[in-house]
Fold this sequence. Notes:
Order of helices and strands: HHHHHHHEEHHHEE
Distance between the termini: 71 Å
Shape: elongated
Strand order of the largest sheet: 1-2
Structural class: mainly alpha
Strand content: 5-15%
Low-confidence stretches: none
Number of helices: 10
Mean pLDDT: 80
Amino acid sequence: xxxxxxxxxxxxxxxxxxxxxxxxxxxxxxxxxxxxxxxxxxxxxxxxxxxxxxxxxxxxxxxxxxxxxxxxxxxxxxxxxxxxxxxxxxxxxxxxxxxxxxxxxxxxxxxxxxxxxxxxxxxxxxxxxxxxxxxxxxxxxxxxxxxxxxxxxxxxxxxxxxxxxxxxxxxxxxxxxxxxxxxxxxxxxxxxxxxxxxxxxxxxxxxxxxxxxxxxxxxxxxxxxxxxxxxxxxxxxxxxxxxxxxxxxxxxxxxxxxxxxxxxxxxxxxxxxxx
Length: 275
């Protein structure tokens, strides 16, 4: 908590309010640009040739390539609709993260995710390996995972009809990444580094949540057992014979003048205890 306070106090000048919104809006502009001039898409990829020529700005520009690639065929209109949907969801994630974390922490989370993925892209490109698959989809997933961790019960309308909680979508996305990593194990290390900012924040949070949940469950069981024990105890008990309404339901019980409770067998006609 103190680290977060110091971060917001000392580095608030690095905060970019609405950073995620700004990135998405630039992606929409790039979508329009690439639709008009398809050759412009090459400026938003990290390539070995580009880095060899000193085009290090590619390590920053890749994040501005749209999540939905422009299409000049029959699916162009569908891609535009999908882009608008993603923009709306991204705005929701942006506002939600800034509401939960504040502008400074949200900005640093985006900076960290951006930097980690850029480092991975640079390393892969310098080794001459294609960087396909490590694009803005991974960047969006790092934001989506943070949103799902903070608001797990938020619901999206899948196919505009079926309501589904966001944590389920996050788990399915993580499973797909894991399956891809099992087919090619080095991907697991690559994904781990790309999601490093999320893991550094989420793993301790999830551990605390699991610990607190276990403590709450233990307290609930203790309370329930205590309540059941109280329910099983008797309400009336004779001060002489110790019989109660559970062991002898046919008996009647009265409180005598000495403030003690007696059964009908040990009370006389005047309501006094018998010797």
